[in-house]
Every structure is written in C-alpha cells, then in structure tokens.
Specification:
heterodimer, A: about 575 residues, alpha/beta, 21-stranded mixed sheet, two-stranded parallel sheet, 21 helices, 23 strands, about 15% strand, B: about 300 residues, alpha+beta, 5-stranded mixed sheet, 12 helices, 5 strands, about 10% strand
C-alpha cells in the first residue's frame, strides 16, 4: 500500500563518474531505513544530496521536539512518506503550573495538514500538546489505517474524544492515555470499541478517573488476543483484575486497579494464580493503596519483573522489604518516600541489577514531616546497585559527602535528578553549599546527559558543570546560583547542551546574552523569575533572528521585567497562534 | 459537642495509640488523620490554612485519632494548590471524587499567584515546587484518604492489649478466613438509620469482620448526612472512633448503636457473636438511637454508662 514515489531525474544525475560505486537508490534507501534513531537519520541526511534524498523518501518516522520549531507544511514538503509522528509542545515547566492556560501547542493545525499529505498515517505520539475532542474526532475519521495514539501530559480533551477514537479507528493497536488534564465525563468510551474490533495491543487508561463498564472491558480483553499491555484505572477491583488476567495470560505489562478490596481466601488464591499464569509479565504498575495484605499476590510474578512502579502505593519500609527479595531481576523501580531509608536499603540488597530508581515524595508540601528519605537511603542503593544510571530522588536533606560516595559507587549515571525539597537548603551536616556534590557528579559521571540540581548552590556549581559536563544535554536549575557568572559558565561550556530550564535564579541579561552563540544549537531555553529584563530580551531577539524570544509577563510586575522567557530556535519565525499574554520580541 | 470533644481528648490518652515504631509513620498518620478530620469538617467552615489546635467534630475513620488528633490540624496538602480559602465547601468533595478539574482550576489560581520566596522559604509557598506533576499530587491525596482504612489494619495487627477481644483486628480475622478457605456470594442486607429517611444496602460478603462493616456504614450514612448538613446534624451523627480502635457503632456511641434483626425476628446488638455466626443469621441492620436501644441487651447500658463516665 505504499504511495507512489516520484523518482526525479536529479537522483540519477548525481550518480556521475566522480562517485565511487554509487548505490542505486533502492539499495541506499534500504540501508538507510535500518538507521532508526532520528538523530542519526538527521546526520545521514547531511552527508550529500543522494543521501538527503534517500533519507527523505525512506523516512517513515519523524520526531519533532518543539512543535513551534517547524511547521507542518515544511514537514510535509520534505518527507512524503511519514507514518509515525512524535510531537512535543509546551515547555516542561508547564507540568508544574508555570505556563498559563491557552499558551498554545494545539495539534489541530498539524492534523489538518497530515490528513491531506499523510492519509496513511499510523502513529501519533504527543506530549504536552493541547488536543481537543474535535481534533480527536477529526483524527479518527481522517486516517483509516490509524494504529497508535499516545497522549502524555496533554490537555484539552474529554472522554468524548476517546469515544470517537474507539468508534472509528478500526485498526487501532495502541491507546495510551497518560497523566493528562482532561475532563472525565464517564467511562462509556470503552464500550465504543465495536465487537468486531480485535487488534488492540496496548491499552492504558490508568489515569482516567471514571468507571468503565467492566463487562465491555472484559469482552474487549478477551477478543484482543495480541494484547500485551493492559493498564486499568483504580476503579477496577481486584477480583475484576483477576478475571482480566485470566483472559489475557499473554500480558507483558499490567497496571492494576485499586488494591484495596477485601478478598476472601478463594479470591486471594485465584488472584495469585492469575498473576502466576502471566508468564510474560515483566512490568507491574498501578497498585493503588496496595498494602502488605494483598501485595503477596504478585510475588509469583515478581521474579520476572524488570519494571515495578510502586509510586502510587504508600508502602512502608517493612512492606517493601518483604516484597523486594522476590524481585531480583528488577531494572526499574519507582517508589514513594514512605518506604524511607530502610526500604531503600532493601532495594540495595535485593536488586543488584537495578538501573533506574525514582523516589517520589508522598507529602511534598508538608514542612513538619521528618520522614521520607535521606542521603543514607540513596547511598545504600548506590552501594548495592552498581549499575544504577538513572535516578530521580526527592528528599529533605543531603550532604556533599553522600553524593560523592554515590557517584563513586555508580559512575555511569546518565540521568541525575536530585530534588532537595526545601529551596536553597545547604549540606545539613556542614552547612556548606551543595556545590561539591554536583561537582562530584559532573566530574565522575562522564556519560551524564541529564542533570537537575537543587539545594544551596553558588556559581561554583555552574563552573563545574560548564567545565566537566561534556555530554550534558538537559539541565534544570531552580533557586540556585549567585550571579550572572553561573549561567555564563554553563553557556560557555557544555558543548552538547540542548535544553536549559531555569527558575528563580539571580541570572540577568548578561547571563542571557552570553548564550547568544549557543541558542541556535539548542532546542530551547526557559528562564522564569530571574533578573532578565525586556530590554535584554529585545537585544537577544534583535541579534538572533532565527530564534523566537517569547516573554510572558505577570500582571504585577513592572514594565521592564521579563518574568517568563522562552527562547527556542525555529525555521518558521514568530508563531501566529500566540495568545495575547505571550509577547514575541 | 462537649461530650464528644471530651471523649476524644481523654481517649487520646486511652487510645494512646502510638504508631508502631517499626513503621515510624507517626508523621504521616497525623497528616492522614487530620486529612480525614479536616475533609469532613472544614468543608463547612471557611477555614484558614492555619493549623488549629481545636479538635473539630469529624467522622473519624482513623484509629490513632487520639494522640495524633491532638496535633495541629493541617489542611490537605493539595489544598496548597487550591487553598481552602478558595473552595471551602468543595474541600471534601474534591478529595473524594478527584475531579480532574481540580488541576485546571489550580492553573488559574497559581498562575496569578507566583511567589518568589526569599532565601530559605518553605517549599509550600512556591508555585510549582517541588516539581511534582498535578496528576501525581491528586492521586496521592486520594491515596492518603484511604490509607486510614489501610493503616487501621496495620495498626490492629500490632495492638493486642487495647483491642476488644470480641473485635479481633480485621487483619487477624482476615487471615483466619483466608486460612480457612471461606467463600461467599454477595449478601446484601438493608440498613436503616434512625432519623434518615433513605435506607441503604450493604454487601456483607465484602467484609470479614465488624470493623470494616462499621466503617463502611459510617461512610454511607455520614456522607449522605453531610450533604444536608447542619451543625447539630454533625453532632448527632458523630461516630467518632473510640478506645479499642473500633467504630463507635460497635461499642456504642453516645447517640447511635448498630443493631441487627436475626432470623428469629429478634433485634440484637451487632458485635456480640463471632462474625460468621452474625453473617449467617442477620436479616437486616439498623443504626438505632441509643435511647431506643435500652432494652436490647444489658451490655449496652453497661457500655453506655462507661462512656458517660469517661466523657466527664
């Protein structure tokens, strides 16, 4: 069903005698189609005209990290055969309420173009985009072969939009709705999948709040024999889950519903059996309100687990300590800080293959809490899990020495995101800034790609980062630094920097402008509640025409303050859909 | 009101339910308790976000209520995003129904509210900090509200001395039933409460001990009365948790008592016989005013008398 490809004379002309053994286009395209990573593909396309064309015709998947960096028309012109689109919209800090509503990133204009140019579009993966019900309906009706819809952290739609997808997408294989700000008008959407519909492989509605008709779900699971990922929401009870598992023992990833039902013994053992019968299960998530009473039902499945998401279960340390010895193959673990340091010690001792750990705060705003995890939990994990390379850690105290130990144990960190929850908090033992901690991180972890810093930090931290973090691509900074020099150090170093997000730091115009030469090689810069002024932004915009410099002003600030600044490279100039509160300079 | 408050304060010592040290969850427990209290109570009082030492009436589901409740009441953590000032009467509703509009409203509120903290400002006053997504926050807050039920079973396990012998910890009994392979189909019985026109039905097979049944009933009837709320109503329907960690419905509250009609047509006090025997003979339930329950069993008066003494 491939659309006809036009073969221009140009491609033949370029095969002249100065080329060494030129490949026929088909061969080149075939070879290049094996290059999957979009970054490599971009590199490939820059080699020569032949290769540019070969890439152009053979590219089936496109990744656009900032929807405003390019227009759908340009994409359509260059790549005629796209089947899969990944689009990201709003700046990441919109997840934390720093970006006002109606900022933009609406998918609709993209869909309109795609409907015209890519009638065979199969996949759409969106992150932080605004998607309306109309858009979903339009999508469902425009692409007959549509297979994959993944919406992460999006907003603007309701379950009515999902109804349209379920009703019209006859070839859907994946419906993945995660953590979106949507209007949940009821669970009736699930019943819209027709009885003839059997192709589903991935279904994730864990973050939807209303009840679906269990009967419809059970029938759906029963007839979709290729279903491998099923993540239900918390309205699905344990005995309902058991019925679903029975129907789909081929599942590889299960997201349970609420774990808080009361089971009689027969139900308990049936559930245990159901988990045991899922021989391919490698991921379990959900587990809302799971406690030691019923967690044991998953023990038989634990030995094969590589990813366990307990971040919605308020487990205590002893419960985790009982669970983890069963999970010796774990590679990724997400927990709440209710497990405390003792629980993390269990992680260190039970999961030697662990590569990723995320510890979320159960009570992020509670000042008086003397609980959660501390530096010793982190150290304990690093002692036992030498393969650790991804960590997200929310804590209330940390020391420079602990971090030094941690990176000494685990020098392969690629993602180090440490959040000491009280802004500007020093090393609690020495009262010094946390500069040396992050210095140790960047000096030791040469593969570091992503870094989030916190605690009391002076410019020294940023000197270290600029000097040592050669592979750093993403940096998140909050309540840190002493002067412009901090940000300047980063802008003058960090050769691979692509995304920089800064809030509440004393960086001003000098800092902003020090990156003049760098921003075009970056995806974006976000600076909010810093010391940047409108004049500084105007200067930046004037000097760099291929950047969009957008400012969002707060109502109470004075005229020259640039409260929120978002700078990004683009080939299409200022965006035309900017709301009134966004000033493009 | 005084009686109840007094009861609570005194039983603070009586409950004295220190959270098991192994779990070291005192902190979270108090927050949890207070969530329960505040979500039930502060909804109708335009409460400030300040900690208040006043013990307020609540439909306490928690057990460690005494000691913990004496600590200051804290607003639910998500109230930081939406302050209680904004939505005084929606506090409890939002928390139980987790309306997805909550984060949206917070967007607007927060956007206008950005505060740059001075050095060392606490994290609660800062917009978007700590950086936890709204979805996760909302899920956590719901989890906290239901942790009371969870926690009570954990606490019950470790508390032997204080627990009433007749009321085995739910867990223990749960384990017993698990061991003995009991199985049941749905068993719905009617429940009526004196003073409430509308009766409900409860599925007895979804429970395996008196604890959870009583809690479910409290939930059912307290939620419905909350809507048609007056201060006196709240008092009247106060089903505070009592020493012994069991619902007042079981050991006799100052106002109401849980009774059932058995197969022979006799009205009996719930809690006297082993659970399974109860389930096999119960026809329907009634939450009866204590004043009417006088003739029921000698035990009632005895307990009732004990309560009075304690209240004073």
């Amino acid at each position: 069903m491939d659309p006809v490809r036009k073969r221009t004379k140009d491609s033949f002309k370029s095969c002249d005698s100065t080329h060494l053994a030129p490949f026929p286009d088909e061969v080149l395209e075939k070879v290049l189609s094996l290059v999957k990573s979009h970054k490599d593909r971009s590199s490939v396309s820059l080699v020569c005209k032949d290769w540019y064309n070969a890439d152009r015709w053979s590219r089936g998947k496109i990744f656009i990290g900032n929807c405003y960096s390019v227009s759908p028309e340009i994409v359509a012109r260059r790549f005629p055969n796209i089947r899969s689109v990944t689009l990201k919209g709003k700046p990441r800090f919109s997840d934390f309420n720093l970006v006002p509503q109606n900022w933009g990133a609406d998918i609709h204009s993209w869909l309109v173009v795609f409907a015209r140019v890519y009638p065979f579009l199969e996949e759409l993966r969106l992150k932080r985009m605004v998607v309306s019900d109309e858009s979903l309906e339009f999508l469902a009706n425009s692409f007959p072969g549509f297979k994959v819809l993944s919406l992460l952290s999006c907003d603007g739609f309701s379950t009515d939009g999902l109804k349209a997808i379920a009703t019209h997408c006859k070839n859907l294989t994946e419906l993945d709705i995660q953590e979106n700000g949507i209007d949940d008008l009821g669970g009736g959407w699930l019943s819209c999948f027709p009885e003839t519909f059997v192709s589903l492989e991935v279904l994730n509605f864990a973050s939807l709040n209303s009840d679906v008709t269990f009967d419809a779900l059970e029938r759906l699971v029963n007839r979709c024999k290729t279903l491998r990922v099923l993540k239900v929401n918390k309205h699905i009870s344990l005995d309902q889950l058991q019925k679903l598992l029975l129907r789909a023992p081929q599942l590889m990833e299960v997201g349970t519903g609420s774990f808080q039902q009361e089971l009689v013994p027969r139900q308990f053992s049936e559930l245990e059996t159901a988990f045991k019968s899922c021989k391919n299960l490698h991921t379990i998530s959900g587990l809302w309100e799971a406690s030691s009473v019923y967690l044991p039902v998953i023990y038989p499945a634990c030995v094969n687990l590589t990813y366990l998401n307990l971040s919605y279960a308020t487990l205590q340390s002893d419960e985790l300590s009982k669970l983890l010895p069963n999970c010796s193959n774990l590679r990724r673990l997400w927990v709440l800080d209710t497990v405390e340091d003792k629980g993390l010690e269990a992680v260190g001792s039970s999961c030697p293959l662990l590569e990723e750990l995320r510890v979320f705060p159960a009570d992020p705003f509670d000042q008086d809490m003397v609980h959660g995890v501390t530096e010793s939990g982190f150290v304990a994990v690093s002692n036992g899990c030498r393969k650790l390379h991804y960590v997200l850690y929310f804590c209330r105290q940390m020391t420079n020495a602990a971090v030094a130990t941690i990176v000494k144990n685990c020098p392969d960190f690629t993602h180090f995101r440490l959040c000491i929850m009280n802004p500007g908090q020093p090393d609690y033992l020495t009262s010094e800034p946390m500069d040396e901690a992050f210095g140790a991180v960047v000096k030791t972890c040469t593969k570091l790609q992503r870094l989030a810093v916190s605690g009391l930090l002076t410019d020294r931290t940023f000197e270290y980062i600029g000097k040592y973090a050669k592979n750093l691509e993403t940096l998140s900074v909050a309540f840190a630094g002493s002067s412009d020099w901090g940000m300047q150090s980063v802008m003058e170093g960090c050769p691979r920097l692509r995304k920089l997000e800064i809030r509440d730091c004393p960086f001003g115009n000098a800092a902003l402008l020090s990156g003049l030469d760098k921003y075009e090689s970056m995806r974006s810069l976000w600076m909010s509640a810093c010391n940047v002024t409108m004049n500084g932004c105007r200067l930046l915009a004037k000097n760099m025409p291929r950047l969009n410099v957008e400012v969002i002003k707060d109502d109470e600030s004075d005229d020259n303050e640039a409260d929120k600044v978002y700078v990004y490279r683009t080939v299409v100039g200022p965006r035309r859909d900017a709301p009134p509160f966004v000033l493009t300079l | 009101m005084e009686n109840t408050l007094g009861l609570l304060e005194n039983s603070g010592g009586g409950i004295g339910r220190e959270v098991p040290s192994g779990g070291s969850t005192t902190g979270s427990m108090s927050t949890v308790d207070n969530l329960v209290f505040s979500s039930e109570v502060s909804s109708c009082y335009p409460d400030e976000n300040n900690d208040s030492d006043e013990l307020e009436l609540g439909l306490g589901l928690s057990l460690g209520g005494g000691a913990a409740a004496n600590k200051s009441l804290k607003p639910p953590s998500w109230a930081r995003i939406l302050t209680a000032k904004d939505l005084p009467c929606l506090v409890s509703k939002s928390s139980s129904s987790s309306s997805p509009t909550v984060p949206k409203a917070s967007h607007k509120r927060i956007a206008a509210d950005s505060v740059s903290p001075p050095n060392g400002a606490s994290s609660s006053q800062v917009v978007g900090w700590p950086p936890v997504r709204a979805y996760r926050m909302n899920s956590l807050n719901q989890a906290k509200l239901s942790i009371t039920e969870d926690f009570s079973s954990i606490v019950d396990k470790s508390e032997n001395a204080v627990v009433n012998k007749d009321n085995n910890s739910c867990n223990k009994q749960g384990n017993d039933t698990i061991d003995k392979g009991l199985s049941k189909v749905s068993l719905f019985v009617k429940v009526n409460m004196d003073g409430t026109a509308i009766g409900r039905k409860v599925d007895l097979s979804a429970h395996n001990c008196y604890e959870t049944l009583a809690r479910t009933l409290e939930d059912m009837f307290c939620r419905s009365t909350r809507n048609a709320n007056t201060r006196s109503n709240m008092q009247g329907h106060n089903l505070m948790v009592e020493a012994g960690g069991s619902s007042k419905l079981l050991v006799g509250s100052s106002e109401y008592v849980l009774t059932y009609e058995d197969k022979e047509g006799d009205w009996m006090l719930v809690g006297d016989v082993p659970w399974r025997m109860f389930v096999s003979s119960v026809k329907r339930l009634r939450i009866m005013r204590t004043s009417e329950a006088n003739g029921l069993a000698p035990k009632i008066q005895e307990r009732h008398g004990r309560q009075r003494a304690r209240a004073i």
